[in-house]
């Protein structure tokens, strides 16, 4: 199964609609294509005890693992308070993505000029932590 980039971005936009962000008002959606070509989505979920919230990327990665995916082929991340605006993964999610990425993984996010960009994990996390 091949998922077009536009469809991946749209899946992230759709996931964003389910975000629970009553504290920040900033909703995020993420959509992953895994190593088997399957789609997995997630949204951010906030909590009154802020550290207990979860990011959209973490939710999408958990969904991928639950369904048997092992590696991220592509991930799209969309976010914003109202409209979709510039939003790249936070530092913690960059590390999460790196755990399941390789040099071919594509991260799609909107930059500060509101243009969709492709990033590698090395570009977003140049000195990421590895255990191997």
Brief characterization of the structure:
By secondary structure, the chain is an alpha+beta fold. The chain has helices spanning 5-16, 56-66, 91-99, 121-124, and strands at 27-34, 39-43, 72-80, 106-110, 116-119.
Number of domains: 1
CATH domain fold name: Cytidine Deaminase, domain 2
- Nearest-angstrom radius of gyration? 14 Å
Low-confidence stretches: none
Helix-strand category? alpha+beta
Mean residue pLDDT: 95
Helix content: 25-40%
Number of helices: 4
Strand content: 15-25%
CATH architecture designation: 3-Layer(aba) Sandwich
Tell me the overall shape.
globular
How many strands?
A: 5
Q: In angstroms, what separates the terminal alpha carbons?
A: 31 Å
The helix/strand order is HEEHEHEEH
Major beta sheet, specifics? Answer: 5 strands, mixed
CATH class category name: Alpha Beta
Looking at CATH, the homologous superfamily is: Cytidine Deaminase, domain 2
Strand order of the largest sheet: 2-1-3-4-5
Question: Which tags fit this structure?
Answer:
132 residues, Cytidine Deaminase, domain 2, 5-stranded mixed beta sheet, 5 strands, alpha+beta, single chain, 4 helices
Fold blueprint:
Layout: H1 5-16, E1 27-34, E2 39-43, H2 56-66, E3 72-80, H3 91-99, E4 106-110, E5 116-119, H4 121-124
Parallel strand pairs: 3-4
Antiparallel strand pairs: 1-2, 1-3, 4-5
């Amino acid at each position: 199964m091949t998922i077009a980039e536009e469809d991946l971005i749209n899946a992230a936009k759709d996931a964003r609609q389910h975000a629970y962000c009553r504290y920040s008002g900033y909703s995020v959606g993420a959509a992953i294509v895994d190593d088997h070509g399957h789609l997995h989505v997630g949204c951010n979920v906030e909590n009154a005890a802020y550290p207990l919230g979860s990011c959209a990327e973490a939710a999408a990665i958990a969904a991928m693992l639950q369904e048997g995916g092992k590696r991220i082929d592509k991930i799209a991340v969309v976010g914003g308070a109202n409209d979709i605006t510039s939003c790249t993964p936070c530092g913690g999610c960059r590390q999460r993505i790196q755990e399941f990425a390789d040099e071919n993984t594509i991260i799609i996010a909107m930059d500060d000029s509101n243009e969709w960009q492709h990033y590698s994990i090395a570009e977003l996390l140049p000195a990421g932590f590895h255990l191997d």
